[in-house]
């Protein structure tokens, strides 16, 4: 049998289609999500319904976003899910989650076994809507989950860790082997819970500056911070901010990156005035 065919559907690689087939894993994920009636549950990439069905058994209404037209059409005629579903047949990257939350009248609970080829840009897209989101549960490559949760002084710590932790509390939930999917992906997977902070622990004045500093620093992660950020800060400025200039990008905390971004914002503002 062609192992790319699952429930009569030929898995499309370009849509990152790896369908969950393991009852125990599916039940564990749904237990972690713990959906309740009258919550604004939103699934990204429902596919053949591996998570949608058990979630749909527990609640009356569910919003799903599915790019694949054939899969969206299947859901439209699904025996018991169809009347419960609001289906957006579109790219989740173009979804306005603030508008969706306004339509549903409450913060969103977003979940999904994400297409791995777009998981990082999709998470950045979602981070820009954290005001409209109560929490998120995602299946991702294990390596991406490791990066999301990593703290300073570790190899996995990078720009994704800083940006995710700026917006959210990040909690690893479950590890999942390739055999839990059809077709089996080449990598290990894991589920993560992201809970947007109700009050940002280190608010920055201009997000684009935090983004720029972390990009510069981690693009040259082997250099000392004095060198990698040399065109933005003098060594004296960094030291005044309490940053040891002999350290590298991976040794700097989220709080310190935010402090650096705010210093830069103030410096630019004082130049303009
Ligand atoms: N939830 C199903 C499961 O667990 O078996 C399917 C998961 S599969 C890894 C990813 C799903 O996301 C597929 O159904 C795929 O068609 C859909 N998808 C891919 N790219 C998408 C996008 N940009 N926006 C929305 N859905 C997308």
From TrEMBL:
Residues involved in S-adenosyl-L-methionine binding: 18, 20, 45, 66, 91, 113
Family, similarity comment: Belongs to the class I-like SAM-binding methyltransferase superfamily. rRNA adenine N(6)-methyltransferase family. RsmA subfamily.
Organism from which the protein derives: Siccibacter turicensis
UniProt KW keywords: Cytoplasm, Methyltransferase, RNA-binding, rRNA processing, S-adenosyl-L-methionine, Transferase
Catalysis performed (reactions): adenosine(1518)/adenosine(1519) in 16S rRNA + 4 S-adenosyl-L-methionine = N(6)-dimethyladenosine(1518)/N(6)-dimethyladenosine(1519) in 16S rRNA + 4 S-adenosyl-L-homocysteine + 4 H(+)
Gene name linked to the record: ksgA
Name by which UniProt lists this protein: Ribosomal RNA small subunit methyltransferase A
EC nos: 2.1.1.182
InterPro entries hit by this protein: KsgA/Erm (IPR001737), rRNA_Ade_diMease-like_C (IPR023165), rRNA_Ade_Mease_Trfase_CS (IPR020596), rRNA_Ade_methylase_Trfase_N (IPR020598), rRNA_adenine_dimethylase (IPR011530), SAM-dependent_MTases_sf (IPR029063)
Enzyme class (EC, first level): transferase
PROSITE patterns: RRNA_A_DIMETH, SAM_RNA_A_N6_MT
Record-linked Pfam families: RrnaAD
A GO cellular-component term linked to this record: cytosol
GO MF annotation list: 16S rRNA (adenine(1518)-N(6)/adenine(1519)-N(6))-dimethyltransferase activity; RNA binding
Subcellular location as annotated: Cytoplasm
Domain Ribosomal RNA adenine methylase transferase N-terminal, residue spans: 25-198
SMART domains according to UniProt: rADc (SM00650)
Protein function: Specifically dimethylates two adjacent adenosines (A1518 and A1519) in the loop of a conserved hairpin near the 3'-end of 16S rRNA in the 30S particle. May play a critical role in biogenesis of 30S subunits.
Main location: cytoplasm
